[in-house]
# Entry
Amino acid sequence: MTRLILFNKPYGVLPQFTDKGTEGSPRPTLSAFIDVPNVYPAGRLDMDSEGLMLLTDDGRLQAQIADPRYKMPKSYLVQVEGAVGDDALQKLRSGLKLNDGMTLPALAEAIDPPALWPRDPPIRVRKTVPDSWIRLTIQEGRNRQVRRMTAAVGHPTLRLVRWSVGEWSVEGLPPGKWRDLRL
# Structure
């Protein structure tokens, strides 16, 4: 039986079980939250992003989730700088030229601020610059892709929460907690 763990990764947690980075001040890793042998992340989620991470003990499932050729949709709730207009959304929907090539078209829509957990630390708020939220669904997984896409349309990312991967969602799962599924 395949094991799949849905984990709500908090901001500032490395998406791996060990920290081979700087000495002196160890950063929090998955091992601070998940003490389950023989499960490995299926894909990554940057240290400064939050939300759904999937971990599994099945190499084939891990590849299906992480490998872009399977085109598993990944949805993000993204707080961006500025008021997002139809032009920016249309560019995201059409695909963008980034420094590593064209992105596939994304599903992109402006949304009301979602009811999320507080982020620690909170985002930096600027009194003179508004912010807005979008739901962005991509089928790729390039390095920092969502952040680069929003910046390319003139709206730098302030907060990035991966909400779902394929059929699995972080809904109802508090930060730092995980749910175990048997497939």
